[in-house]
């Protein structure tokens, strides 16, 4: 059990002990968790969730970067109920389709940038990434270049936890487990200016990080490289906003060596950065993008890959099945919810709200409230996405020693004081629902300030 107080609540205690007996949690040291008991979350409304002790908590992470339209949206519940009644499942393998899959593909195409108008459905971001890996390799194979199959990604990138996602991602802790990884994946440095640029200006560092791509392409041979894959802004890596010139340089290099550019939009998609897709905010013109999370505001699992003409036409003209897909590709209920979600986003002008109103307000208010805090080394973010570097010494950027898990200390203070922020190493990240109000942003910032103060006290 978590503590004595929790023991007063039999329902909570029951759920905790059932959970400890039977549930293996994702990305969790389950043994350690079982000793204290998992917090039981019982309901959500707007930007808030409640736990079984009745605590109301401001969800600064929108679940897991996904509940973009907030909790308790009746429109999404009704779409699911209606579709459950009409047709709860049918596949799209047997030369068959249904209106949710077809209409959702059209809805997605209405908001994707450029010519990314053909949609392949999956159930999770990881599956979308695996789809990209297989699809770009297959694309080159049908161009007569099966050897053009290396994918290049970045250190500290997160692309999911299937074997494909783990291998493509740059998380060293993940690489050690369940190895060996997939072959023919290469990685280059991440564009983390505050943490890794030394004396370089942002511009110099942007060029240097893009040059790392060119160096890697030349090292393995341009004719062997299928695609470069990157998140417009790294999310789970700690919200790393690249220097302003970075993506334009990357784009030039991909064009120069005829390498496909894939944007992993699982976090950045669906308004998070103030455009429908992060690629628009960051000025990227990808050949293919993955999306999940905000596609259905997390109400049901669904993901997609949007494919531009170059790859789509090759697949369509090639007279052979593409042997890839999932039982639940384009699941009618999940698709119906995603359609309702996109329509709701359009009706409420939510992307414009993030771009012009709440995004700039959030970024400004965070800096006003936290920039001068002794623990805060740097704040970076766009729209409703932010990463905050916690440091021991602001002037030298010195980090806390390894035995002081400053991020976890801060995260626990947040949870105990009614705020969810996530710790990524020594960085604190936030990604609240897009429907957050000005007053709720104020509350988020005030709570964060209080929790940063408590964190400082804990380590002083
Ligand atoms: N790509 C990115 C950029 C992600 O952030 C995530 C999940 N956080 C994934 C892929 C994997 O998505 P999922 O957990 O739905 O498999």
TrEMBL record:
GO molecular function terms attached to this record: pyridoxal phosphate binding; transaminase activity
CDD domains membership: OAT_like
PROSITE patterns registered for this protein in UniProt: AA_TRANSFER_CLASS_3 (PS00600)
Keyword DNA damage: no
InterPro entries xref list: Aminotrans_3, Aminotrans_3_PPA_site, PyrdxlP-dep_Trfase, PyrdxlP-dep_Trfase_major, PyrdxlP-dep_Trfase_small
Domain of life: Bacteria
UniProt keyword terms in alphabetical order: Aminotransferase, Pyridoxal phosphate, Transferase
Cross-referenced Gene3D superfamilies: Aspartate Aminotransferase, domain 1 (3.90.1150.10), Type I PLP-dependent aspartate aminotransferase-like (Major domain) (3.40.640.10)
Cofactor: pyridoxal 5'-phosphate
Record NCBIfam families: PRK07480.1
Protein name per the record: Putrescine aminotransferase
């Amino acid at each position: 059990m978590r503590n004595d107080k929790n023991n007063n609540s039999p329902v909570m205690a029951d759920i905790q002990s059932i959970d400890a007996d039977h549930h293996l949690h994702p990305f969790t040291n389950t043994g350690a968790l079982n000793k204290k008991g998992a917090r039981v979350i019982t309901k959500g409304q707007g930007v808030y969730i409640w736990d079984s002790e009745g605590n109301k908590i401001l969800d600064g992470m929108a679940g897991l970067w996904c509940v973009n339209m907030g909790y308790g949206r009746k429109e999404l519940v009704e779409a699911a109920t209606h579709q459950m009644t009409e047709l709860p499942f049918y596949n799209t393998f047997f030369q068959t389709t249904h209106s949710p899959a077809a209409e959702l593909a059209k809805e997605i195409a209405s908001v994707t940038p450029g010519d990314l108008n053909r949609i392949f459905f999956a159930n999770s971001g990881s599956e979308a990434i695996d789809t990209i890996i297989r699809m770009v390799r297959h694309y080159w194979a049908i161009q007569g270049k099966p050897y053009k199959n290396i994918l290049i990604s970045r250190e500290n990138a997160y692309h999911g936890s299937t074997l494909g996602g783990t291998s493509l991602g740059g998380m060293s802790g993940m690489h050690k487990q369940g190895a060996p990884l997939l072959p023919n994946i290469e990685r280059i440095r991440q564009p983390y200016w505050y943490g890794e640029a030394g004396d370089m200006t942002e511009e110099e560092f942007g060029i240097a990080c893009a040059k790392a791509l060119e160096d890697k392409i030349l090292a393995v041979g341009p004719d062997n490289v299928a695609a470069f894959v990157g998140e417009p802004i790294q999310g789970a890596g700690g919200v790393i906003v690249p220097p302003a010139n970075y993506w334009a340089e990357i784009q030039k290099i991909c064009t120069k060596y005829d390498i496909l550019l894939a944007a992993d939009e699982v976090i950045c998609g669906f308004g998070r950065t103030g455009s429908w897709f992060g690629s628009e905010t960051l000025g990227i013109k990808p050949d293919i993008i993955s999306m999940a999370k905000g596609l259905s505001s997390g109400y049901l699992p669904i993901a997609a890959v949007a494919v531009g003409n170059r790859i789509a036409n090759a697949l369509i003209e090639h007279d052979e099945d593409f042997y890839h897909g999932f039982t639940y590709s384009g699941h009618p209920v999940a698709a119906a919810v995603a359609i309702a979600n996109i329509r709701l986003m359009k009706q409420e002008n939510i992307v414009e709200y993030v771009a012009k109103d709440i995004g700039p307000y959030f970024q400004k208010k965070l800096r006003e409230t936290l920039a001068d805090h002794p623990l805060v080394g740097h704040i970076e973010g766009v729209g409703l996405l932010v990463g905050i570097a916690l440091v021991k010494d602001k002037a030298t950027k010195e980090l806390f020693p390894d035995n002081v898990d400053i991020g976890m200390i801060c995260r626990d203070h947040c949870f105990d004081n009614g705020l969810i922020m996530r710790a990524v190493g020594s960085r604190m990240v936030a990604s609240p629902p897009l429907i957050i109000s000005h007053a709720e942003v104020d509350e988020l910032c005030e709570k964060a300030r209080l929790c940063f103060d408590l964190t400082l006290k804990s380590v002083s």
